[in-house]
Each structure stands twice: as structure tokens, then as C-alpha cells.
Amino acid sequence: MTAGEKWSRAIALAATVVFSVAAPVVPASAHPQGSGLLQCEGTESISYSPGLTLQARPVHVTIDGRFASCAGGNGAVRSGSYHEEFTLSTGCNNLLEGFRARRTYVWNTGDSSTADISGSSTAVAGQVVTPVTGTVTHGPFHGRKLLQVIPVPQPSALHCLAGGVTGATGVTTLTIL
Question: Which residue, among 44, 35, 41, has the nearest Cα to 79 in the 3D structure?
């Protein structure tokens, strides 16, 4: 088994454990007919301005997520995206703190789903892995639970010392029950 396969299995296992704890099983009758499990795959890009250094300071963070492939749900959602911007006091040494936020996913159908989310990150094998859990509060999939897993490369101390880390990109998966 290659290192990549081991990493993929570790992420899948972590997501399964987190999701099974965070999202109770909901009977199929609680969802509108034909609105089964939705699964999306894509990328998330994060940019930091100014770049992250070892010293915490106010940093403007921009997050762009794109799901190139979605399957399931009601069959109409095939892709989606999200965009967020905010400022926080952070540095390379405190990227793993927990958070609560509201995220809006925009679907290829023109509809959007807003979710109240929370998460925290863990450094694992050179990656910062962030499992995000939440509940859709408005729009398609209203009332349903979600899990989004986002691993991005962990900033190295060398990059943090040499001018700062200005961004990271990683794969992301979204599951809405």
C-alpha cells in the first residue's frame, strides 16, 4: 500500500468516526422524497494577507471552495462552490484552533444552501486536516446534517520564517445526509 493510499484511508476513517459522532441517523421519512445522500468532491484554496508568520497578527483570510463533482441528493446538484472572507489574529503556530461559522454553498442549479458549521483542525502527517460538521439551515437540504473534510499541506517552519505562508490548497469532500 502506498503512502497516498494510507493517507486516503486515514482521512476516510477519520471522517467516518467524526461524522458518526456528529450526525445522528435520521430516518429516510424525515427527508423529502428523492433527496438522499449528497456527496461532492473538489478543492479548497485559502489565501492569507499578509502571509502567516510564527507571530500571530491580524490576517485577512480568503477561502474559495469548488466542488467539480456532486452525486446523489435529488439528482439536480452536480457541482457547487463557496466563498468566504474574514480577518482574524493568527499565525503559523495557531492554525489549529476551533471555529464556528455560517457557510453558504452555491449549487449549479442556482440555489444555495446555508449551514451553521463548526470544526477544528489537527496536524497529521504533514497535513492540517479540518473536519467541518453542521446543519443546513436554509435552502435545499434544509435540516440535514453535513460533514466536510479539508486536508491542506501543513506550513513548514522555514516558510513561516521566510516571508510567511500566503496560501494553501487541498482536496475537499462534502457529504450531506
Answer: 41
